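Z., the sequence and structure:
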Amino acid sequence: MKIGRIESFHLRYTDTNDFSNRRETVLVRVETVDGVVGWGEGIAMWPEACRAVCTIIDDGLRPLLVGAGELTVEQAWTAMRKHCWWYGEGGLACFAYSAIDMALWDIEGKIQNKPLYELFGGKHHESLPAYAANHVNKATLEENVAEVVDFQGQGYRGVKLGFGKRGLSDVGRNPEGDVRFVRALREALGPEFEIIVDVGNGVVWDRDTAIRTVRAMSEYDIGWIEEPFYPTQLDDYRFLKAAVSVPIASGEREWTVTGYSRLIDTGTVDVIGCDPARAEGITGFRKIDALCGAAGITMNAHAWSSAILSAASLHLSVASPNTRLLEFKPFPNALLRDLVDRPIVQRNGMAQPSDRPGLGVEVNEAVVSRLAGEHWGST
């Protein structure tokens, strides 16, 4: 392909999945000289980070690629990584070239008239179980349990619950209360509905607290415990893995293929979380997925932003032998419902990608313009 145009968009939206707080992201529109358009996302989230990512795209990567002649996606990916050598292949640069890489794969699928999963060797899964990925933010235990029971009633096969999030809940701030919450969930949901606990950045456990809490939660059959420590606390991960039987997940805050390789080599995790809008794009995700396969561990795609990212994560996940579920934001918002012509939804508890070319979604550019133009006061 020959790239003729690259545009970045800093979007702001209200997210009903995050206690109706403001969230932000960066979308990229890439157009070839022949008029084929692809879309991608860099999930930078913070306002200053989104502005910086747009600058990297507009002032650094766009001049690099536009007019560069015939390029494969891999060649463009390599060129972008090399361009960012001084200020880092990870961090803000990674959001920028992840977004462009995603858009280039969308274009490649359209050029070949194939859905992305076919470009990656076809489906290993016809469909995947859909899990509601939700922040626990209601005021009472009863309200939070009822919310998850409602997800079960909607057909979701499991849930991944973020602890220590914004809102009214104290879940994530009281380990004994957290165990009571998991017990109440299991009693309400029955034995077949999977519960995954995402400890996350808002929770601070020391080693002993983590071991004690995870052992107690294991009595209620949780699927895995995600990021129980800060990602660099590898000694704590080693102690926890040796002390508990519950699978341990990490990786969502990693950046590069090299970084994931180092993490996998530590032997401290059973599940790798990876976001193609952050971790070197679709190209990076596939390389990381291959590392997971070689190590015999599970790959889990992060898809907690726009419908563009959800589409990319779904194609990657059905094409991988190492995945077993797909996460969904359970509540609609503009980036899920309005941004594309066919929102990514679960049906009867399963997720199946579009068979249309590329990502399989057509972006409503009027919605992009509206969300890029909304003002929220000083940022």
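DSSP finds 13 helices and twelve strands in the chain. The chain has a mean pLDDT of 96.

Let me know what you think.
H.
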